[in-house]
Amino acid sequence: MKNLAQSINLMLNPWVLPSLCLLLIFTSYPSIFPFSETYLLMMLGVIFTFSALLPIISIFTLYTSRIIKNYRLEIGTDRMIAMLITTVYYAILTFLVIDKIGAMLLISAIVIAFALATAFVTMLAPFYSACPSSTSAGAVLGTLFAVNLLFEEYNLLLPIAVGILMTGSLISIRLYLNQQTLNETVVGFSIGFFTCLFTVFYFG
Is the whole model's pTM more than 0.70, yes or no? Predict the structure, then answer.
C-alpha cells in the first residue's frame, strides 16, 4: 500500500500538474482555443518543458551532486531550493509565452497564475513549509473553476470532477506518507486555488 502511495505521489508531482491541467482543458473543450491542434500541442510542449521537464532535470542534477539530500524533497531546505528553481523557470516561461510566442490571453493568464502561486510558496518557504503538491493541485482546481466561470456556455463538470478526485487523492497520500502536516497541505492548497482562481478569472 505504501509503495503504491509513493508511486502515485511521484506521478502527481507539482511540476506535472500544470501541464495536466491544460491538457484536460485542451482535450475536453478545444473550441475554447481558436487555434489549430498543432499550435496547442506546441504550446503544451513549451509549457511542459519549462514547468516540468527542466525543473525535474535540474533537481535531479542537484540530487546527484548531493546539494539536495533527498529526491522526494522531504527536507524543508530541499523543497525551498526546488521551488526557487521552479520559480526561475516559470519566470522564463512567462516571458516566452507573453513576449515571444504571443499566446492567447487565457493561456498567458494560466501560466502567470501558476507562476504567481509558485512564487508565493517560494517566498513563504523560509518561514513556513507550505505543501508544493497541494499548491499545484489547488492551482489546477482554481484554474478549472475560473475557466468554467469565464466560459459559461461550456460545462467543465468532468474536468473539475477529475481535478477534485486528483486533489483529494494527492492530499490524502501526502498525509498518509507523513510528508506534510494537514495545516501545510491546507495552506498550500489555498495559495494555489485562490491565486489561480482570481488571476485567471480577472485576466483571462
Answer: yes
